[in-house]
Specification:
4-stranded mixed β-sheet; alpha+beta
């Protein structure tokens, strides 16, 4: 048995039958980019259910020199989650919301939780998680953070990197960095979590995050307006945005 085969067997043993997909038909949905522009190939699709399983898989791959491509909801449009050899590590089974602290306005969620489920859980707790985008019914929060997703609420709430207090990350050698801090006023040392947000899994695999929640808005208003040209639209934006004191959530031009 070759070194790669031994590594694949060890990975299969680590994640069990529920976490292993090795047949072509089973792997197919993970290998196609949403628009069909990219199609990948890999030795197996691995779906760990815990941070410890992710760490074990990454450690085995590191020792064997086996490439790992992490993937969340596979909603990206640039091919970043499509593998070219090695294994594909899917976070779909890392799908627990570990804690909601409405008093501190935080939620601790695993990387594979669907964004729409995070928003719904926050709403049920009387709070708001403001990240919202077209794929929120199938994209997963680990992918949102790994790509620093923007969404429609950037004007008021910022991009994904502005909505995170802490991370749990599996490093390339299989070690786990536990940075799941919930403290809002934290001025201690380096802000290491920002290295992993937007890095698309190249520096480590995000397995969980402490997310910032916000008070749920009591009122909402939406308007559709027409203007003669782009300059007039920008003027309209300024006239709406400035007097509102930062309460404008989104301004879309079409």
């Amino acid at each position: 048995m070759s070194g790669a085969d031994k590594a694949l067997k060890a990975i299969r043993d680590a994640v069990g039958t529920k976490g292993w997909i090795g047949d072509g038909d089973g792997m197919e949905p993970y290998l196609d980019e949403e628009r069909g522009l990219y199609h990948g190939a890999c030795a197996a699709v691995v779906r760990p259910a815990t941070t410890e399983e992710v760490a074990k898989v990454v450690e085995i791959c590191s020792r064997a020199g086996l490439a790992v491509v992490p993937q969340g909801g596979n909603t990206g449009l640039v091919g970043g989650g499509v593998p070219d050899g090695g294994i594909l590590l899917s976070t779909v089974r890392l799908n627990r919301i570990r804690e909601i602290d409405a008093g501190n306005l935080t939620m601790t969620a695993e990387a594979g939780v669907v964004l729409a489920d995070i928003r719904a859980a926050a709403d049920e707790a009387g709070c708001l998680f403001p990240l919202s985008l077209g794929a929120e019914g199938s994209c997963r929060i680990g992918g949102n953070l790994s790509t620093n997703a923007g969404g429609s609420g950037v004007l008021r709430y910022g991009a994904a990197r502005d909505l995170v207090l802490g991370l749990e990350v599996v490093l390339p050698d299989g070690r786990v960095w536990d940075g799941l801090r919930r403290l809002r006023k934290d001025n201690t040392g380096y802000d290491l979590k920002q290295l992993f947000i937007g890095a698309e899994g190249t520096l480590g695999i995000i397995t969980a995050a402490v997310l910032k929640l916000f008070p749920r808005p009591q009122d909402r208003a939406t308007a559709l307006a027409a203007a003669a040209d782009l300059e007039k639209l920008l003027e309209l934006f300024s006239r709406i945005h400035e007097p509102r004191g930062g309460s404008l959530v989104a301004f879309e031009v079409m």
